[in-house]
């Protein structure tokens, strides 16, 4: 019973096991819901999906299974910044009445695809283009009786399509950008504990053996508290193309700052050459040579590069390639020196992974990093931390 | 047994279905959602509406799974042995039952709340797998075995600070409390503050949703903050017109401190409202 549904849900990558499947069947057997599609959807989600990051996948699976409007997947093709919710136009009744209904659903979808092709930029208001707050049939936060809602949060008119097609949970998928808390959690995987500081904790094993030695008279022993002992060295790319990612990088930086006691950080521009620096304001006085960096920090530091690796390939591979000064040795040479010295290193890239292939420089750096380049998303961070922990 | 909105607590249809499924299929219900959406409150209200006992187990970063079952107080036994107390011969005197134990031995089906399970160590949920599945455990010190007479209704809340292990998730039902829409929110406010005039509520909700829709807020205000704010508005006797004026004029709403919990957010909102006002001219 419902095996096809089970397989569809699994096909969309929702981790569902047979146990959970049987739970759903049991729940149906007990007639918790009866002959009601929307309630079945809720019950199935309750039983099968165990994390809100999978809600979106589950919704898409339902859409396919219920043979509803599959093509609404078009929504994922639209850049989300078109739909930033900052304008909801309140239409009067007359306005609403004036709106014509576009033909059938097929008609609407065809038009949608056409518009999508025609339209090249973000749009807001108006009555034709896809965007927010207008009265075009396509977009979010507006009003059109038969509209296609594209990535809208909350309930504007609550008139279009079925529950699972609204895809309320699209923004919770694990590919989304990180917030500070998520970053901290990812970084937390790096924790390695060692005992340092004051002797405040009861040492149970020590107490037992000391007490036995005293012939049974209690002899309490204390030991030092555990602290995170991992050492992290971070190199941040600043300026130029990195300005687009500044907010994300700030979050990463503040999370790393609160998470690691032994955190050293330096800045570089585009690619690492002879020097890095600690403060962008005092840059001329504050240079530290990379050779000194290698001498100062022991190879057990975890090295994390943060940069978009988006530059001219010559900036990496040729002497004199730097955009700021004449470098006697190529950036690649310096990067290799660093990766040879430090055992654990990764490169975190704020560029979305899908775009990596379009930049040759990213390919070059990935090669230099022995493929240890990860996107700055929740998944990427987890992978990166995993790689830093490998023995 | 079925659970519906009470006069103190509004339940969405989704949540009611989830709770009822957990009750009738005797499975733990894992609840996630934004802070301030009433996750913990749910267990309290559920216990009250079923007229049964609520056993709360609040998890901290130092909580061990064993503490929920029982604790063997070896130190006081050791002390007693040195003082020659006769209690020392019976090990039972030093076994202190934990929250799960009291939930298992209750005669009327209780509600067991395991609050903020994500605060505990990563291994914590794994250590409770068998206990939550079979609702039974052994006391090794006495050889006793504790088996639930009636399976308690288990509500587990999480704030998503740690990922929970798959094996644990498989044993639970999962529900994500979404932020309530305007209608539900009105109902919730009615329950908490029945004395509110509709005009004030209308204005306040508009300001509140406007605030939540602002991009890039560090901490979006939640239901509990809305209610605090409304209480303050009532206490300060601020009329609906003042709110309307504040919206008209741009700038921050009165008593904004109840809604915004961080100075960057305050600055951001002030700037955005100012810009919105200029654009509106």
Please tell me about this protein's structure.
The complex is a heterodimer of chains A (391) and B (281). Chain A has 391 residues and is α/β, with parallel strands linked by helices. Helix content of chain A is 37%, strand content 15%. In chain A, strands 7-6-10-11-12 form a five-stranded parallel sheet, covered by helices on one side. Chain A has a three-stranded parallel sheet with strand order 1-2-3. Chain A has a two-stranded antiparallel ribbon with strand order 4-5. In chain A, β6, α10 and β7 form a beta-alpha-beta unit. The longest helix of chain A has 14 residues. Chain A is flat and about 75 Å long. In chain A, 34% of the residues are buried. About 22% of the residues of chain A have low confidence. Chain B is an alpha/beta fold and 281 residues long. Chain B is built from 13 helices and nine strands. In chain B, the strands form three sheets. Chain B has a five-stranded parallel sheet, with helices on both faces. A two-stranded antiparallel ribbon of chain B has the order 3-4. In chain B, α10 packs parallel to α12. The longest helix of chain B is centred in the last third of the chain and has 18 residues. The termini of chain B are far apart. Chains A and B meet through α2 and α3 of A and α1, α4, α8 and β9 of B.
């Amino acid at each position: 019973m419902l095996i096809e549904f089970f397989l569809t849900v699994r096909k969309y990558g929702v981790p569902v096991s047979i146990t959970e499947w049987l739970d759903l069947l049991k729940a149906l057997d007990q007639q918790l819901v009866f002959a009601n599609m929307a309630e079945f959807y809720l019950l199935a989600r309750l039983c099968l999906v165990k994390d809100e990051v999978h809600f979106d996948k589950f919704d898409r699976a339902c859409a396919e299974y219920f043979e509803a409007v599959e093509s609404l997947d078009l929504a994922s093709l639209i850049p989300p910044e078109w739909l930033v919710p900052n304008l909801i136009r309140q239409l009067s009744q007359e306005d609403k009445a004036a709106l014509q209904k576009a033909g059938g659903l097929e008609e609407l979808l065809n038009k949608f695809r056409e518009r999508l092709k025609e339209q090249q930029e973000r749009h807001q208001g108006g009555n034709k283009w896809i965007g927010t707050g207008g009265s075009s049939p396509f977009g979010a936060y507006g009003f059109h009786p038969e509209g296609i809602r594209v990535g809208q949060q909350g309930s504007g008119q609550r008139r279009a399509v079925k529950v699972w097609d609204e895809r309320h949970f699209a923004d919770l998928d694990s590919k989304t950008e990180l917030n500070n808390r998520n970053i901290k959690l990812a970084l937390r995987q790096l924790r390695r504990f060692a005992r340092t500081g004051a002797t405040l904790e009861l040492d149970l094993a020590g107490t037992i053996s000391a007490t036995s030695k005293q012939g049974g008279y209690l002899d309490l022993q204390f030991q030092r508290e555990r602290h995170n002992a991992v050492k992290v060295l971070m190199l941040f790319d600043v300026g130029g193309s990195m300005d687009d990612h500044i907010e994300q990088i700030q979050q990463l930086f503040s999370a790393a700052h609160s998470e690691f006691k032994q955190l050293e950080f330096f800045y570089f521009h585009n690619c690492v050459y002879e020097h890095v620096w600690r403060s962008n304001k005092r840059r001329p006085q504050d240079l530290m040579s990379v050779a000194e960096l290698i001498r100062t920090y022991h190879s057990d530091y975890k090295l994390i590069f943060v940069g978009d690796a988006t530059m001219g390939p010559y900036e990496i591979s040729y002497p004199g390639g730097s955009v700021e000064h004449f470098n006697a040795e190529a950036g690649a040479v310096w990067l290799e020196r660093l990766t040879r010295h430090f055992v654990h290193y990764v490169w975190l890239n704020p560029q979305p992974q899908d775009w990596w292939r379009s930049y040759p420089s990213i390919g070059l750096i990935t090669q230099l990093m022995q493929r240890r380049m990860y996107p700055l998303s929740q998944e990427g961070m987890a992978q990166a931390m995993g790689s830093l922990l490998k023995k | 047994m079925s659970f519906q909105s009470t006069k103190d607590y509004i339940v969405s249809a989704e949540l009611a279905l989830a709770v009822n499924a957990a009750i009738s299929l005797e499975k733990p219900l894992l609840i996630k959602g934004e802070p301030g959406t009433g996750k913990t409150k749910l267990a309290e209200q559920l216990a009250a509406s079923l007229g049964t006992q609520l056993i709360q187990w609040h998890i901290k970063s130092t909580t061990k799974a064993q503490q929920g079952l029982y604790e063997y107080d070896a130190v006081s036994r050791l002390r007693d042995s040195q003082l020659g107390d006769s209690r020392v011969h019976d090990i039972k005197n030093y076994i202190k039952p934990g929250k799960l134990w009291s939930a298992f031995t209750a005669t009327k089906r209780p509600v067991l709340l395991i609050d903020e399970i994500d605060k505990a160590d990563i291994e914590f949920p794994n250590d409770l797998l068998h206990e939550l599945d079979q609702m039974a455990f052994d006391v090794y010190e006495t050889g006793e075995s504790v088996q639930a007479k009636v399976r308690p209704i288990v509500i587990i809340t999480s704030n998503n600070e740690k990922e929970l292990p798959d094996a644990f998730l498989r044993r639970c039902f999962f529900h994500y409390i979404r932020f309530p829409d305007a209608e539900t929110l009105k109902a919730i406010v009615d329950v908490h503050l029945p004395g509110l005039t509709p005009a004030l509520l209308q204005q306040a909700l508009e300001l509140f949703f406007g605030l939540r829709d602002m991009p890039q807020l560090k901490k979006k205000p939640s239901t509990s903050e809305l209610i605090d704010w409304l209480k303050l508005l009532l206490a300060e006797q601020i009329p609906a017109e003042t709110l309307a004026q504040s919206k008209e004029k741009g700038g921050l709403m009165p008593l904004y401190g109840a809604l915004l919990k961080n100075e960057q957010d305050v600055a951001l909102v002030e700037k955005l409202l100012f810009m919105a006002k200029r654009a509106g001219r």
